[in-house]
């Protein structure tokens, strides 16, 4: 069992100050929140090595996952990323200015604007994703394969329930 941590101390203080309330959810939610913040810090460190923000990485990765010719329209990009449509335009503008993506008119529908990876964008996202996967493997190595395997279905089930609301 790990040593008592900040969450243990916080729960003990709440038990003392508010014995009428049960602070036990903090054992899971507080720790999960801290884990999420720390994971984000460690993920973003790798994105910054490639001069990308988290949102820019997400846009490039979505285009790469689309397969050749590595393009999506704005609606598809919003559906396949964690970026809001409002933030999407700014990110695409920045990526376009860096020569990583280009906008063009759809062949089937001239009203449709598509965003496509350029060769430089394809090269960058392939290198960044390789580093990202190595980083995620390193982060999960701290848990080991048994804990990782046990945690994945629990988180998937919980996320599905939260997404329903």
Automatic annotation (TrEMBL):
List each copy of the HTH marR-type domain by range: 25-160
Signal sequence span per UniProt? none
Q: Which InterPro entries match?
A: HTH_MarR-typ, MarR/SlyA-like, WH-like_DNA-bd_sf, WH_DNA-bd_sf
Q: Which domain of life is it from?
A: Bacteria
Q: Name one Pfam family in it.
A: MarR_2
State the PROSITE patterns in the record.
HTH_MARR_2 (PS50995)
Identify this protein by name: MarR family winged helix-turn-helix transcriptional regulator
The organism named in the record is Microbacterium koreense
């Amino acid at each position: 069992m790990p040593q008592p941590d900040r969450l243990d101390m916080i729960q003990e203080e709440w038990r003392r100050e508010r014995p009428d309330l049960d602070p036990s959810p903090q054992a899971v939610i507080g720790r999960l929140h801290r884990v999420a913040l720390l994971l984000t810090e460690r993920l973003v460190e790798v994105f910054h090595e490639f001069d990308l923000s988290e949102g820019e990485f997400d846009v490039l990765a979505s285009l790469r996952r689309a397969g050749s010719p590595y393009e999506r329209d704005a609606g598809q990009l919003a559906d396949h990323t964690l970026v809001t449509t409002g933030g999407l335009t700014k990110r695409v503008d920045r990526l376009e200015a860096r020569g990583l993506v280009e906008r063009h008119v759809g062949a089937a529908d001239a009203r449709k604007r598509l965003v496509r990876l350029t060769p430089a964008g394809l090269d960058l996202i392939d290198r960044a994703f390789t580093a990202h996967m190595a980083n995620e493997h390193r982060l999960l190595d701290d848990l080991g394969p048994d804990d990782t395997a046990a945690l994945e279905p629990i988180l998937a089930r919980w996320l599905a329930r939260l997404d329903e609301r």
